[in-house]
Amino acid sequence: MEFLSDTMMIYLILAVAFGLFMAWGIGANDVANAMATSVGSKAVTIKQALIIAAIFEFAGAYLAGGEVANTIRQGFIDNEIFDANPEMLAWGMLGSLLAAATWLLIATLRGWPVSTTHTIVGAIVGFAAVGVGVEAVNWGTVGTTAISWVFSPLISGVIAFLVFMSLQILILDTKNPLQNAIKYGPFYLFMVGFFLSLLTIQKGLKHVGLSLDGAMELIISVLIGVVVAIAGRILISKVRYDQQAEKRFHYANVEKIFAVMMLFTAAAMAFAHGSNDVANAVGPMAAVIGIAQTGVMTAKATVPSWVLLVGAVGIVIGLATLGYRVILTVGSKITELTPTRGFSAEIATAMTVVSASYAGIPVSTTHTLVGAILGVGFARGIAAIDLRVVGGIFMSWVVTLPAGALLSVMFFYLLRGIFV
Amino acid sequence: MPKSHIAGLFGKSPIRPLQEHMYCVYKGIKHLIMLVEGMNNDDEQQISAAHQAIVESEHLADDMKKDLRHNLPRGFFMPVDRRDLLDVLWMQDQIINQAKDIAGMVVGRKMRLHESMRPLFQQYTERCVAAVKQALEVINELDELLETGFRGLEVEHVEEMLTELSRIERQTDKCQVELRNILFTLEDGLRATDVMFTYRLIEWMGRVADDAQRVGSRLQLMLAR
């Protein structure tokens, strides 16, 4: 018994260490894509972006990150097979974390367009299928997740298209775009605030100690939406208009208003990213910790909130150490994405990703954002999109899955060799 | 530093370079007025200065044209068709090429107009330059068009500008007819080769306005997609 608990202690430490490594990687790289859209359109400064990202990544991970973490933790594997040998699962999950973090690091250094979500799913499926057996994989969940990877960019593309079209009709294509921007802008903010808080409250607040009934949920969501809209209205009223710039470009001041509103969509993006991608680090970590604490695989229990907290902290550290540099580089390169476009793309991405988080489906925030940008492009809103890059990004699905799997199988055998 | 695929997603916008190219063309075209003034005042220095300026603009525009073509690969997904863009670019380039030919001919043949043609030809040249200026202004609306997603009021606004461009072009046509009539009455008193080249000068000047008009029509096609 003495020996066993020592081993378990090691598992616990390794889980937190690898989980932090993975979360750090997500914060250093993945978050940049979520935040750079706002920085690139000069809507927010890098400092503001960091503060927004830190707060809302954390909030998203902590308040709405539980469902996806659960899917990652136990959705892809057959629980009964691992009930008999929980240690296998511990090795596998540790190996997956290490594999995904390593692959992420390599890809980041090389500039390959990989997604953390695809890497960790590939890694988990890989170790289960190769290290244990094909029957150890819950192929149904894997299938639905893979389908969602096709649909999430598609759906967010359609939403972005519609949002941008509505901006054209209500604001841009009117006699007085500036006044209409001031008039309608807050409604969009209300929509985002309402939608995100409704989904979050419905699913995630039990572990924070809040339990509400249906009507209360709706009322609180509406209230949050209204508060967001009013905050937006106040900030918009403080915008200083530039008549000189307006002469050169008739929409200069409209874009200024949208730049302010992008503060909110940037927050929504960070929240969405936190709610979905933190799970990539937290899910496997939670599985190992569960085994270490109880000695068996606990399928029923939800992810403990302190584990979500570890993931959130890791992301913020990654953001502060390396992420801000990535945001700066990316941000300086995507000036083509003006505030109205960025606004449309971010609303679409945030809504799609938070919906996926609500359903417990791990999706790639980056791919969803790419879909949204394409959607704006279809509305003739972007000067030029490089389709070869789009192709490369979606090709990365194909490469990342086996790469993650291969690495995780390697680490799985390595860990088994060490512990047995 | 890690690269980002989101950043790579955005191709280089063709709109700004296209506008800059047209601005360069217009800056050269403006010197046609100086050239004709020089002819009418028999000022050799002014003529060669104008010629110089036009040739320089033509070179600069040529470099810009090549740059833009290189930055417009086939894999780009754009709000306007790639072919339309390249056609507009080519037509813009034609304008300044035409001006270079005009200036070259005037300098090479030491051309002078008959006194009775001078005021009208000056006016004619000014209208042709005005057509190019109007085309430049239309091209300058491209970023506003992009902002509205090529629809609605902004499109109407551009359509109005295009109508104005057509109106200017028609004025140049009228000038052209009158100039030809005057030249016809003078034919017998002038050297045959001078007559021939003066007809050519009138025609080439008219092409400047025609090409400006063609830039506009091509843009109209883009709007109609």
UniProtKB/TrEMBL annotation, chain A:
<comment type="similarity">
    <text>Belongs to the inorganic phosphate transporter (PiT) (TC 2.A.20) family.</text>
</comment>
<feature type="transmembrane region" description="Helical">
    <location>
        <begin position="347"/>
        <end position="377"/>
    </location>
</feature>
<feature type="transmembrane region" description="Helical">
    <location>
        <begin position="184"/>
        <end position="202"/>
    </location>
</feature>
<dbReference type="InterPro" id="IPR001204">
    <property type="entry name" value="Phos_transporter"/>
</dbReference>
<feature type="transmembrane region" description="Helical">
    <location>
        <begin position="306"/>
        <end position="327"/>
    </location>
</feature>
<feature type="transmembrane region" description="Helical">
    <location>
        <begin position="119"/>
        <end position="140"/>
    </location>
</feature>
<keyword id="KW-0812">Transmembrane</keyword>
<keyword id="KW-0813">Transport</keyword>
<feature type="transmembrane region" description="Helical">
    <location>
        <begin position="214"/>
        <end position="236"/>
    </location>
</feature>
<dbReference type="Pfam" id="PF01384">
    <property type="entry name" value="PHO4"/>
</dbReference>
<protein>
    <recommendedName>
        <fullName>Phosphate transporter</fullName>
    </recommendedName>
</protein>
<keyword id="KW-0592">Phosphate transport</keyword>
<feature type="transmembrane region" description="Helical">
    <location>
        <begin position="88"/>
        <end position="107"/>
    </location>
</feature>
<feature type="transmembrane region" description="Helical">
    <location>
        <begin position="146"/>
        <end position="172"/>
    </location>
</feature>
<keyword id="KW-1133">Transmembrane helix</keyword>
<feature type="transmembrane region" description="Helical">
    <location>
        <begin position="389"/>
        <end position="415"/>
    </location>
</feature>
<keyword id="KW-0472">Membrane</keyword>
<feature type="transmembrane region" description="Helical">
    <location>
        <begin position="257"/>
        <end position="275"/>
    </location>
</feature>
From TrEMBL, chain B:
<dbReference type="InterPro" id="IPR018445">
    <property type="entry name" value="Put_Phosphate_transp_reg"/>
</dbReference>
<comment type="similarity">
    <text>Belongs to the UPF0111 family.</text>
</comment>
<dbReference type="InterPro" id="IPR038078">
    <property type="entry name" value="PhoU-like_sf"/>
</dbReference>
<dbReference type="InterPro" id="IPR002727">
    <property type="entry name" value="DUF47"/>
</dbReference>
<dbReference type="Pfam" id="PF01865">
    <property type="entry name" value="PhoU_div"/>
</dbReference>
<protein>
    <submittedName>
        <fullName>TIGR00153 family protein</fullName>
    </submittedName>
</protein>
